[in-house]
Amino acid sequence: MDKKEQILASALKLFVEFGFHGTPTSKIAKEAGVSNGTLFHYFATKEDLIKELYITIKNDLNQFLFSKITPEDSVEAIIKKVFIYFIYWALDNREKNHYIQQVLFSPHIFQISESVLMEQSQKHIQLIEEAKATKIIKDLPTDLIYTLANSHLMGIYNYVVNLPPDQQKPIIENGFEMLWDMLTEQK
Amino acid sequence: MDKKEQILASALKLFVEFGFHGTPTSKIAKEAGVSNGTLFHYFATKEDLIKELYITIKNDLNQFLFSKITPEDSVEAIIKKVFIYFIYWALDNREKNHYIQQVLFSPHIFQISESVLMEQSQKHIQLIEEAKATKIIKDLPTDLIYTLANSHLMGIYNYVVNLPPDQQKPIIENGFEMLWDMLTEQK
DNA sequence: TACTAGATTGACTAATCACTCTACAAAGGT
DNA sequence: ACCTTTGTAGAGTGATTAGTCAATCTAGTA
């Protein structure tokens, strides 16, 4: 692992444990096994480090999610895969998931440009549009569906994260069904 | 408004805007119109201020929610009221709502004692237990229902917060129906 | 009036932190 | 072999900050 990655990994660990304020750049450098100067060689400011870490994690997540899709998958199958694999990713990468939330509810999120944020949600939005177009899911505003799906996902995650691994699967599967029913059932 | 309240109000405003790190105690004192020393007369440490602000807001919210309930309300009516009024509270108190989330995804949450946190969710948990006992809602684990309801609530809030006020009501009402269907519908 | 206890002030301090700077090493191109 | 670029180190610095402290003020009570 090269130094830059090492710095990002250390920053992730420390930010999640001690928060942005509670983590001096000096401690990040020490944990990463590099000098103070090296950290600032790769990241001009601490803020840049916080931002780049966020973007890196989000990109990794998206790449992982969409790598699970095969061309023959139906829209419904894709949505289910994105749902299920997000949970498994979050369970395997708890710190990363926590970090994303941490940034989301901090002023640092405003430092990340609108276009970068939109780029990251674009594929998900597109997926919802497709599902709406083919009448699989209800005709609610796309943003509303996106927000509700995200929230539901976090809800399921927050519950299963405290469960022993052998009890997680049924809840996750059922969790998807709940969301799917919510988005498809007709009154 | 006495000085202590003034300090809490200023801290809320600044923490939400600039984050915990970005807000020195000196700025809080200045914004509150009190001296540096006065702040530390009321709050031994900055951490104490962060904690107390969280607890105060949460208590205010709970008091507000349960003040809307009348003795003749059915369990279903109570749940609906708690849902609907939470959204309206959050819309009227955006900074407070944001602050709660901010603390929730920060290391400061671990500084708040388990018993205080449990006390605050107790009434909500109890409500779910009642609904389950009277077979109104599905027999899922209470914690799961609690988590899902919370997430759904935040999802709806996140969507309506960007809507013009006159378009909010139908979404909120419909949002409750979605959750209710999810928790009651039989397969 | 005199006493007391809490409220309030703001200058002060010791520590910390983000970031700089200089020096040197390694790598790579020509 | 020479030069340029990039990587790495770590001591140093100026600014900032949480928290202290001694002094003053205020209001209640006897």
Automatic annotation (TrEMBL), chains A, B:
Keywords: DNA-binding
SUPFAM superfamilies: Homeodomain-like (SSF46689)
Top-rank lineage group of the source organism: Bacteria
DNA-binding region of this protein: 24-43
Record-linked Pfam families: TetR_N
Boundaries of every HTH tetR-type domain copy: 1-61
Record protein name field: TetR/AcrR family transcriptional regulator
Classification of source organism: Bacteria, Pseudomonadati, Bacteroidota, Cytophagia, Cytophagales
